[in-house]
TrEMBL record:
Its EC number is 2.1.1.-. This is RsmB/NOP family class I SAM-dependent RNA methyltransferase. The lineage of its organism: Bacteria, Pseudomonadati, Bacteroidota, Flavobacteriia, Flavobacteriales. SUPFAM superfamilies: S-adenosyl-L-methionine-dependent methyltransferases. Belongs to the class I-like SAM-binding methyltransferase superfamily. RsmB/NOP family. The keyword Electron transport does not apply. It comes from the Bacteria. Keywords: Methyltransferase, RNA-binding, S-adenosyl-L-methionine, Transferase. PROSITE patterns: SAM_MT_RSMB_NOP. GO terms for molecular function: methyltransferase activity. It comes from Salegentibacter chungangensis. The active site is at C354 (nucleophile). Residues 142-403 form the SAM-dependent MTase RsmB/NOP-type domain. CDD domains: AdoMet_MTases. S-adenosyl-L-methionine binds at D256, D283, D301.
Length: 404
């Protein structure tokens, strides 16, 4: 691989914003890719993938390069030199990369690889939390899987097309996919590609959604004509799936505390041809009160640490703090207590997170079932999805039923 100066410089600029200014990697990359219209798809994927790689391996690379945050420009080039050296890429003779100690980099990599927190490039607290929650053996495998690059997976919008027709249409645009067993609407890309540019996407024939996440709407066991409340709808990944499973019949009230996320949901719903969604921002305490006892189904896709989706969002390793996870757990308990009231007697509710920590998952459900608010509920089933076992995002979902 030949390194191109303008692409490497753009990567260094992106890393500086992410590491030194605390900006979100996905937003920075999106902005960086708009910088030069002449960049082709290979150039764009070089910038995006290299930036994500260096974000993912920050701790390991910083240790190898012997640099500390905040990173000067020279130190960002050192991190880049580690990235390139470990991939066997020949370094060009630019002054920023002069005197890169190639042999020392390889030697340090070998010795640091013996220690998990360096090998997997994670903060101390995360390694300790993982071991405490999952046990040494499971955590070792899980964090390894969460450091792999996530595949691109799409969900067929069955309001507009079938999986087979979509697969064919994408193949006509040179995007080849295969189905995933037990995930009825999912297609995984054989090779990474910018699917947002396809006509099929513009026409609302699919959404990008991980395979594990695609199981949640099915878990809720919805039927056309039901009244469903999606209490933490965000930009609507699961709301849109629910609308498709309900064949646009019945009603989905989509709630979130952030109105701007619901605006995005509306835009996506228009593209998807989903007409049974009623977005409502939770901007006062009457919003929930009004819905009390009204729903056949309730989805709580709770705010969580996101530790199950680290492969998609590696900078969460550096942005998350243990205190924040504690605050999130408090929010999760409150949400379960409050939003469970929305369900009708005899109705069903799913509590889901994209975390792999039992303390955000089954422990929350048990706590709820043992509380006053949960006394009329029973757990029907739950699923603990580990990335190390499936190759997809880590997820948790529990189906609860309220007695009549
Ligand atoms: C895991 S995300 C939801 C993702 C979304 N369901 C999807 O499938 O795309 C959790 C959402 O909960 C929202 N949230 C946080 N606190 C909340 C609260 N107290 N009540 C309702 N929503 C909340 C966040 O804004 C965020 O959009």
């Amino acid at each position: 691989m030949r390194l191109h100066r303008n692409l490497v410089f753009a990567t260094i600029d992106a890393l500086s914003e992410i590491f030194n200014e605390g900006k979100y990697a996905d937003k920075v990359i999106e902005k960086t890719l708009k910088r030069d219209k002449r960049w082709g798809s290979r150039d764009r994927s070089f910038i995006a993938e290299t930036t994500y790689d260096i974000v993912r391996w920050k701790r390991l690379y910083a240790e190898i390069a012997e640099v500390k945050e905040p990173f000067s420009r020279q130190n960002l080039f050192r991190l880049f030199a580690v990235w390139a050296t470990l991939r066997g890429i020949k370094l060009p003779d630019w002054k920023q990369l002069e005197e890169t100690p190639t042999r020392r980099i390889k030697g340090k990599f070998d010795s640091l690889s013996k220690i998990r927190k360096y090998r997997e490039s994670i903060p101390d607290w995360l390694d300790e939390t993982g071991v405490k929650e999952l046990g040494e053996k499971k955590w070792e495998k899980e964090i390894h899987a969460l450091n792999e690059q996530a595949p691109v997976i799409i969900r067929t919008n069955t309001l507009k097309t079938t999986k087979e027709a979509l697969q064919k249409q994408l193949a006509d645009e040179e995007i080849f996919t295969r189905p995933i067993k037990n995930h009825p609407e999912a297609l995984v890309l054989e090779e990474r590609a910018n699917v947002f540019k396809t006509q099929a996407f513009k026409d609302g024939f699919f959404e990008v959604q991980d395979a594990s996440s695609q199981l949640v709407a099915h878990f809720l066991d919805v039927q056309p004509g039901m009244r469903v409340v999606d209490t933490c709808a965000g930009a609507g990944g699961k709301t849109l799936h629910l609308a498709a499973l309900m064949e646009n019949k019945g009603q989905i009230v989509a709630l979130d505390i952030y109105g701007n996320k619901l605006k995005e949901l509306k835009r996506r719903a228009r593209r998807a041809g989903a007409h049974n969604i009623d977005p409502r921002a939770i901007d006062n305490n009457k919003v929930i009160k009004k819905l009390k006892g009204s729903a056949d189904r309730v989805l709580i896709d709770a705010p969580c640490s996101g530790l199950g989706v680290l492969s998609r969002n590696p900078d969460a390793k550096w942005k998350l703090q243990p205190e924040f996870i504690e605050t999130l757990k408090q929010t999760q308990s409150e949400i379960l207590e409050q939003y469970s009231k929305i369900l009708k007697p005899g109705g069903k509710m799913v509590y889901a997170t994209c975390s792999v920590l039992p303390s955000e998952n089954q422990d929350q459900v048990e706590k709820f079932l043992n509380s006053e608010a949960g006394k009329d509920f029973k757990k029907v089933k739950d699923e603990k999805i580990l990335s190390s076992e499936t190759g997809y995002d880590g997820f948790y979902m529990a189906l609860l039923e309220k007695s009549n």
